[in-house]
Specification:
This protein has 209 residues and is of the alpha/beta class. It has ten helices and six strands; from the N terminus they run βαβαβαβαβαβααααα. Helix 7 (151-161) packs across helix 9 (177-191).
Length: 209
């Protein structure tokens, strides 16, 4: 019989960690050896608890789960990281993969799927919830996400990077404000982006001349 997989639960909500621990107690091949509610605790537990796998939330206060995943990759490459998140956003998936996560599962997934993901990732395989599998393909494609934009959408993205508001963009491109708003929505949909701040960040980082 194989030894139990040693788990480190990283989530800033104690109730979530309690729920996960209760789920895993029913699985003889899983053993929770530590919990952490922030990055500092997680890094310390990674040393003292010697886990095989860290089950990582993204939306933590302070250092978020993606940044912490990158720290685990650099400091503890022997510890596999599986993201367990409520977000099915393609950009989060892309960033998590780049940071070194071996899998990404949604928090509302059935308990048996989360257990399967842990077992697969602990063996060195990759695992992603079926609901975001298509997003993983998009996130790891050799084509940049920006390639999916139309020439008009690229013009608008360029102006977003320059700090232009919708009204200014409409005036510069001789469009209605509503048309610019529609283009913004289409850009966010194609890039897998939700918030305005995230769109502006992407626009600046991928600025077109």
């Amino acid at each position: 019989m194989h030894p139990a997989i040693r788990l480190l639960l990283i989530d800033d909500h104690p109730l979530v960690r309690d729920g996960l621990r209760a789920r895993f107690e029913a699985s003889p091949n899983l053993l929770v050896v530590g919990e952490a509610g922030n990055a500092d605790e997680a890094l310390a537990r990674a040393v003292t608890a010697a886990p095989d796998l860290a089950l990582m939330d993204i939306g933590m206060r302070g250092t978020n789960g993606i940044e912490l995943t990158a720290q685990f990759r650099d400091r503890f490459p022997h510890i596999a990281v599986l993201i367990l998140s409520m977000h099915d956003n393609a950009e989060y998936v892309r960033q998590a993969v780049r940071a070194g996560a071996r899998g990404y599962v949604l928090k509302d997934a059935p308990a048996h799927e989360i257990v399967t993901a842990i077992e697969r990732v602990a063996k060195g395989e990759a695992y992603y919830s079926a609901a975001i599998a298509a997003r993983v393909v998009q996130a790891t494609t050799t084509h940049a996400p920006i390639d999916s934009l139309t020439p008009r959408e690229r013009e608008i993205l360029t102006r977003i990077a320059r700090g232009r508001a919708n009204k200014q963009i409409a005036q510069e491109l001789d469009l209605s404000v509503r048309t610019v708003e529609t283009h913004r929505l289409n850009i966010k949909r194609k890039l897998g982006i939700e918030g305005q701040a995230e769109l502006i960040k992407f626009a600046v980082e991928n600025r077109l001349q």
